[in-house]
Design a protein that fits this description.
globular; 80% helix; single chain; mainly alpha; 9 helices
Length: 184
Amino acid sequence: MEQFLISTLTVTLAEIGDKTQLLSLFLILKYKKPFQIALGILLATILNHLATAYLGVAISDLFNSSYFQYFLSLSFVLLGIWLLFPDKEDDVDNRFDQFGIFAATCVLFFIAELGDKTQFATALLASQFQSIWLVTLGSTLGMLLANIPVLIFGEALIKPAPLKLFRALAAITAIAVGIAGFIL
């Protein structure tokens, strides 16, 4: 259960103010269909994070040494530092609109998540915990916990949010996991 809870917390905090959360805001302002967008986010996140968690476990299996644990711990610390820097909003590709809201959301969210902080966190968590399913479920729930309120409350919710505080909490969480890896 620890894997699930830490994955949920880490990804929820890392997602706040992230480019995929900004994409959620854009999608709800454009389409005004929260249920279809939420289903698209769910499917895209499950597919992306399942593959990412699998890759994280597979890579860690290749490196069964104490040095890999140090590398993994250092990676969490570096992720924590990276989380302190806000993402910049990218232009959204409108060519997927012709496939409908659900499909457009799936494709855009999946692409936006590639190389994202939350994808990197998912790979690290899966490597750390050696758990594809619990990490995928936790990271997916974390994405939903951060994005569903944006879909429900839209721009009114995101503007007053203390993004610096959330970035700091996410950074502290990642760095703490990294330091724990060095100690334990």
